[in-house]
Amino acid sequence: MRTNPYAGVPVAELTRAAARLIACEPGAEGDKTRFDVMDLSAELMKRVDTQFRRDDLMQGTIKSWIARMQVRHLGTGPEEASAVPPTDMQDDYSGFSWLSPQGERKVVRDMIDGRGIRVLFVSTGGRTNYEILRATDLKAEVRREESNVASRQRAAAAEQQVNKVQNERDRWFGFTDAMTPMQKGKVVKALEVIVRNGGRAVARRDLVREQVRSGAQVRPHPKYKRLLEMPSGSFLIEKDITATGMDLAEFLILKG
Prior knowledge:
Number of helices: 7
Strand order of the largest sheet: 1-2-3-4
Order of helices and strands: HHHEEEEHHEEHEEEH
Number of strands: 9
Oligomer: single chain
Largest sheet: 4 strands, antiparallel
Strand content: 15-25%
Structural class: alpha+beta
């Protein structure tokens, strides 16, 4: 029993063989060409009934190839106006994914359409309303979308940095704005120390701000240099909040 030479051959190679036979001049290789057409047609129909039995579009495409080969070399079957199958099938993009501004995009199917054009069904964010891209457009699409993602990431990073600077400024009420990093480091070290006041634990920075908000004023004192005095007459000295804390109080009072 004669074995079909196309049995088990990958679909990509079958499409190249079909393209060659459709382009080949009738009778160019005599009986060999006719046997090739019959063998290839049989194998392609087998794939239609098995591998592509649920894929109507692929079935129609393959049947159009078979019709063209048979009309050209056997003189049978209806002529169908289908394009020659592409020969660049060595790459399979199924499963290929990349990032876009709308989320992850993924090729869920790589196939030949009814016109013989290699197309990709692309899902965005796992959705099933697929976009169809020509395979030849994929690389440009990926470059464009990944460039957009990178631009957005840079913009987001810049905005995050601006927010970080603003948050830091708000945390120190503008007190450290004109300071060098070394000076600011000393301020932070002195004023983030936790102290006890009124039976509770509080950072010196927050204690100073609370006292100023409650109407405290910085006053000179012969013994303690400066006092942070409350309207009630109670007060804090530099030993309580440090000279830096007293400077912060004066800054906040002037700032209003």
